[in-house]
Amino acid sequence: MSKKSVIKPLTQRPAWKALATHQKKIAKLHLRELFAANKQRGEKLTAEAIGLFLDYSKNRITAETLKLLLQLAKESNLRGRMDAMFAGEKINFTENRAVLHTALRAPKNAKVFVDGKNVVPDVHAVLDKMTEFAKRVRSGAWKGHTGKRIKNIVNIGIGGSDLGPVMAYEALRHYSQRDLVFRFVSNVDGADFVEAMQDLNPAETLFVVSSKTFTTQETMTNAESARDWLLRGLGGNKKAVAKHFVAVSTNAEKVSAFGIDTANMFGFWDWVGGRYSMDSAIGLSTMLAVGPENFRALLAGFHEMDEHFRTAPFEKNLPVLMALLSVWNTNFLGAETVAVLPYENYLKRFPAYLQQLTMESNGKSVTLDGKKVNYETSPIYWGEPGTNGQHSFYQLIHQGTRLIPCDFIAFGKALTPLGRHHDLLLANALAQSEALAFGKTAAEVKAEKVADALVPHKVFEGNRPSNTILADRLTPAVLGKLVALYEHIVFVQGAIWSVNPFDQWGVELGKALAQRIVPELENTTLPPLKHDSSTNNLIRRYRKMKSAR
Ligand code: F6P
To answer: What is the mean pLDDT of the chain?
Structure first.
């Protein structure tokens, strides 16, 4: 997002003003009326591309809303911003970096330039190196220090170096090599490491230390504990590290200082943001699990979505439509969150993955010009797979006081067909969006002969917006398409809100303060404390608690 953009501040763009007036005009319209007024609404307000079908008809919009939202995209110079990203301009200007996760899935013959250098050959060189390595581990040719084959793979990383790998492993478990065990350690809480290692044999365990910077406190602490665990288990010979540790990083110096041979390092580049990196070498654990061919199919899916995003007209463009609808729901209908509800158990970690992607990207309150925004930016993304969520928080979505737009994601075919399960699953997905949109009126409740006193409790207002995304089945390619869909939604939102979705300064302060507190907790004598009275008191109390018997 170039700093030099000359577009008007958001609330002064004509389409924004028109949308505000328009919202007042249609505020009272119920989805029941919108559907009654147009019998084809459910077929018309849909878009289909690259094997994904989007039904957005259950949003509180009219043809005019859509027209104005598309106009807003134009006035926000969305096209120019897209061109700048795809061309490798340094749109992450606060870190002086290009934003080129799209180059990670570009075909071999593509050309993408950063500072005059085509980066695609480097991307494919790393992919080839990952492929070689994955083949050796999966076939058993790669042996551990004692000559045993590797059976356990432990990814150590956090944030973008963990959430993508975990999510992809769970999502593609169906395609994984079942005689390999995968574990993911992220939290600096020792319980994460200890529990993950409980039943593993060091002689058969390979650690993939994934960290873009190779300085992240959590990851380095876990990696050190892993090295100790391994050496303890294998008799202390430091040479063992070479056979049991590989690194994924941009920082060769730190990798080598840790003791990992840089021949066993898989690189990526500063133009790949952590939360946009699951398709870089950060996906090494994914490739080990599902094999190089499936990993390349995943990348091909990403690329198909990139091409759709880059070339489809905005009114048929899935990420653009979904982003504009989220802007409508957030900024004009006052929604504070978006629930992502996959009706596919393999996607159980998808909402958690999206939390970092969406909120670390657009959880910003200053514009590209450094001015405080006077509108809401990223909503809170959250969710759980259906049908589990139905028996938990859906009550609030149906009858609570808040407006919670939902993204339902479902598939035509189950990966593991079992009796009636898939029909029942889908019946639930479809029923939920129907209930949310149309609800149940007092008259309908009364017609069921419900006692008068109970009627208000059984009324469903409806008019709750949702999108439904359908795909044939969850394949590696479809997963790539879905992730890229949300990556580009985030991009479009950022363009409308005029924020930089690619930095994350908001995580720095806590990190720095923690560094300062560490010695205050660990030193035998308490250093003079210079925090506020609450933090000082908590530090003293913790020290007492940890030393008490
Ligand atoms: O949470 C901040 C962050 O920088 C994320 O953006 C990133 O994904 C994560 O930490 C991990 O960073 P690294 O891969 O450098 O260990």
So the answer is: 97
